[in-house]
Specification:
Layout lengths: L2 H4 L2 H22 L5 H22 L11 H27 L2 H8 L1 H14 L5 H18 L3
Length: about 150
């Protein structure tokens, strides 16, 4: 693997997609005989422990006192949104098919683009909007009952 791959956002985004896909498959099997909220709790503990070990092993842990209040507020909000997303996602997986739930969950891609324009002032080019529109259309096609 080249150094440029490790510093490429595309490389990490593809890995994120691969792990997100595995998350859906593993979770669908894992929640068969358990309450979806409790499953989310177990998953969260695993993430906390793994990430904590990773931070210490790579010497990336930093003094919490060096983090600004604004950063804490937005990370708290992000954490709350993540938790709500996971609870909803696991509940949807519990009662739906993974091949239908995961693509609809990816409507978050469309919402991120819209929110980035409204709240962050980003301006995606027309070709990006075409892709975003196709993602939205695909999610709608999947969501329509047969």
């Amino acid at each position: 693997m080249t150094e440029s791959a490790l510093t490429s956002w595309q490389f990490w985004a593809v890995l994120s997609a691969v792990f997100a896909a595995l998350t859906a498959i593993f979770a669908k099997v894992g929640i068969e005989n358990i309450n979806s909220d409790f499953a989310t709790f177990i998953r969260t503990i695993v993430i906390l422990l793994c990430l904590g070990a990773f931070l210490f092993a790579t010497d990336q842990f930093q003094n919490p006192g060096t983090v600004s209040t604004k950063t804490y507020v937005f990370l708290l909000l992000s954490g709350l949104a993540t938790g709500a997303s996971w609870v909803c996602y696991f509940r949807a997986l519990k009662i739906g098919n993974a091949a239908q739930v995961a693509p609809i969950d990816k409507l978050s891609v469309v919402l991120v683009a819209i929110f980035a324009v409204v709240f962050l002032g980003e301006r995606p080019p027309a070709k990006d909007w075409i892709g975003i529109g196709l993602i939205a259309a695909g999610a709608v096609l999947i969501a329509v009952k047969r």
